[in-house]
Each structure stands twice: as C-alpha cells, then as structure tokens.
Specification:
- The protein is an alpha/beta fold and 339 residues long.
- The protein has two domains: 2-128 and 278-337, Medium-chain alcohol dehydrogenases, catalytic domain (Quinone Oxidoreductase, Chain A, domain 1, Alpha-Beta Complex), CATH 3.90.180; 132-269, 3-Layer(aba) Sandwich (Rossmann fold).
- It is 29% helix and 27% strand.
- It contains eleven helices and 16 strands.
- The chain has helices at 44-51, 122-126, 129-142, 164-175, 187-195, 208-214, 232-238, 258-263, 274-277, 285-298, 315-326; strands spanning 2-8, 19-22, 32-42, 59-64, 70-77, 89-92, 105-109, 113-115, 155-159, 179-183, 200-202, 220-225, 239-247, 266-269, 306-310, 333-337.
- The strands form three sheets. Strands 3, 5, 6, 7, 8, 15 and 16 form a seven-stranded mixed β-sheet that branches. A six-stranded parallel β-sheet has the order 11-10-9-12-13-14, sandwiched between helices.
- α3 (129-142) packs across α4 (164-175) and α3 crosses α10.
- The longest helix is centred in the middle third of the chain and has 14 residues, at 129-142.
- It is globular.
- The termini are close together.
- Belongs to the zinc-containing alcohol dehydrogenase family. Quinone oxidoreductase subfamily.
- This is Zinc-type alcohol dehydrogenase-like protein.
- One of its GO terms (molecular function) is RNA binding.
Length: 339
C-alpha cells in the first residue's frame, strides 16, 4: 500500500524528513477495524514526533508512519468488532503507540472511532477528531463543565484560541453556554475566533490580565492553555478561587504553585492519547464523544475548522503541512486528501 513515512528524525527542511514508500497492507483482528484512509490532518503532535527530540540518529526500519487525524471508509473488521461494518464512513484520531494515518490503509481499535458526520466531506471531517477529542476532554472531563448547559453563564479564557484545539474549543464552550474570552495575536486570527463565536478577544502577546479586567472580569471561572506555558502566571492570576486550569502543553518552564494553593484552584492535564495508550476501561468514551460531535455537526451547531486543503497525500505535501504548522501562525486545521 502507499504510505508516507520517515526513516530518521529530521528537521522539516530536509528532503528525507518524509518519504513516499510502499508498505504491506495491515489486517484487522480482534476489535480493530481496517480503514481506507481518504483524508488526514496535521497537528503539532505530528511535528513533535517527526522532529524526534532525543532520537537524533535513530533509524526506523521498517519506515515509521505517523499521523493522528483522519477520515475514511471501513474496509474490513476484526472478529470481535461490534460497532462498525465494511462500507461505514468513519473519523478518528487513533493511537500514538501504533502506526499512524499517513497511509492508504490503517488499523484502529473501534472504541476510539466514530461515524463520520454525514454533512461533511472526508477533508472537512479529517480536520476535527484529534482537536475535538482534546477540547471535549479538557472542558467536560477534566474541568468538569457541564456539556449540556447546566453551567451556562460561566466564563472561560481560551489561550491560543486560533489554533486547531482552540478553534473547536470555542465552539464547544459556546455550546455549553459559557462566555468565551479567546486570545489571538494577529488580525486574521482575531477575525477567525470571532467568526467561531468568541464573545471577547484579547492579545496573548500583551498584558492579558489587564485586558481581561478591562472587560469587567476580575477573574474567570476556567482557563484553557492551548498554546504554551509562557502564560502560566497570567492564568493563575486570572482563574477564580476554586476555579480550574487545563493545559495540553508539556513544558520545562517553571510553574510556581503558590498562587494555585492560595486559591484552592485545580490544574488538569489533557492528553487525548491517554485512554488508548493505557487501554483504560473507559476507552469507548472517545467513540461516544465522536458520535455526539457528529450529531451536533449534522445539526449545524458545530462547524469544521479546516482552513487549507492540500492534495494528494504524499511526502511533499506532508512536508509543506508540517512546515506551515511549525511557523506557529496557522489558523484552524491543514488537511491533505487523496492518495
């Protein structure tokens, strides 16, 4: 089967950072389903894995396929599968401990796969799974916000709102009835987050505390850090007593906790691969949340966050997508479709 893979961990400028290869077609067993991949999206996690910090000089043989955001069609199923059948259109993010989606076919555990929204093309759908799972788990599982509006009127500051996770996060927060303060640092990302429903926009490259308080808010109920932990001090200052902060950034930066302690505030880590990586008993929750999200999309309450589509799925286009992500200026999601 066609695939795009790496044999060594390199900067994206290196022509060998991705290679077009031919690999054996996998076969599903147990609860795995075999998916014919139609479109994939690129996330910051892809660029971090490809760069391979600490893996300089390591050679992958056979070549390693990465990628964790896809939409496709079920080709075959394992003998223990109960949720899908061949011909079903699906969307999913996958499992970081297994081969990724940058290949014509991929095997994925059915418990972390959902039926694709009927109203979206494969390219539009591929933009959403990883970021939807991340934002959903961050807000509703980690921070404990009620998905269906019981916490209506509470406020949330989404730092890094113009990226992939922030773009769907704004929509999920508005769906739950929250007042959304989004951060953006460029005119185009400010317009983007307002288009997605943000109530207020502040610039995370300037004094966020002063900007939020200028809105008449001494504190916010929740803070989501969806870019990096340079904003930790501002997040701690702004979160209300007994409020919560959730972050997706693995950081080496200092994170002083005295302010959190004095407020009895909580810190939550979100890592959407944790359920599959550790085979948790509630793995199927990702199937359920993708099913819920698909229904909300088909009802017109959530929209795709795709901002650019490249074609076909090959090494050159994956290098370009990774390059764009690494600029730190991408808005929404970059998708590649069709082998």
């Amino acid at each position: 089967m066609k695939a795009v893979a790496l044999t060594q961990y390199l900067p994206i400028e290196a022509p060998e950072s991705f290679l077009d290869v031919d690999l054996p077609k996998p076969q599903p067993t147990g609860r795995d389903i075999l998916i014919a991949v139609q479109a994939v999206a690129v996330n910051p996690v892809d660029t971090k894995v490809r760069a391979g910090r600490g893996k300089e000089g390591v050679v992958e043989d056979p070549p390693r396929v990465i990628g964790w955001d896809a939409s496709g069609v079920v080709e075959a199923v394992g003998d223990a599968v109960t949720l899908f059948k061949p011909g079903d259109a699906v969307w999913y993010a996958g499992d970081i401990t297994r081969a990724g989606c940058n290949s014509a076919f991929q095997v994925v555990d059915e418990r972390i796969v959902g039926r694709k929204p009927e109203s979206l093309s494969h390219a539009e759908a591929a933009a959403l799974p990883l970021t939807t799972i991340t934002a959903y788990e961050a807000f509703f599982d980690r921070l404990g916000i009620d998905r269906d509006g019981a916490d209506k009127g509470q406020s949330i500051l989404i730092i890094g709102a113009g990226g992939g996770v922030g773009s769907i996060g704004i929509q999920l927060a508005k769906h739950a009835g929250l007042v959304v303060i989004a951060t953006a640092s460029r005119p185009e990302t400010e317009a983007w987050v307002r288009e997605l429903g943000a109530d207020h926009v502040v610039n995370h490259r300037e004094d966020m505390v002063a900007q939020v308080r200028a809105l008449g808010l001494q504190h916010v109920d929740h803070v989501a850090i969806f870019n990096d932990m340079r904003h930790w001090a501002a997040a701690v200052e702004l979160v209300r007593p007994q409020g919560g902060i959730v972050t997706i950034d693995d950081t080496d930066l200092p994170m002083p906790m005295d302010g959190m302690k004095m407020k009895a505030a909580s810190l939550h880590w979100e890592f959407m691969f944790a359920r599959a990586m550790h085979q948790t008993r509630d793995m199927i929750e990702q199937h359920r949340l993708l099913t819920w999200a698909a229904a909300e999309i088909d009802a017109g309450r959530i929209r795709t966050t795709v901002s650019q589509v490249l074609s076909p799925i090959n090494a050159a286009n994956l290098r370009e997508a990774h390059r764009l992500i690494e600029t730190g200026k991408a808005k929404g999601k970059i998708v590649i479709e069709g082998f």
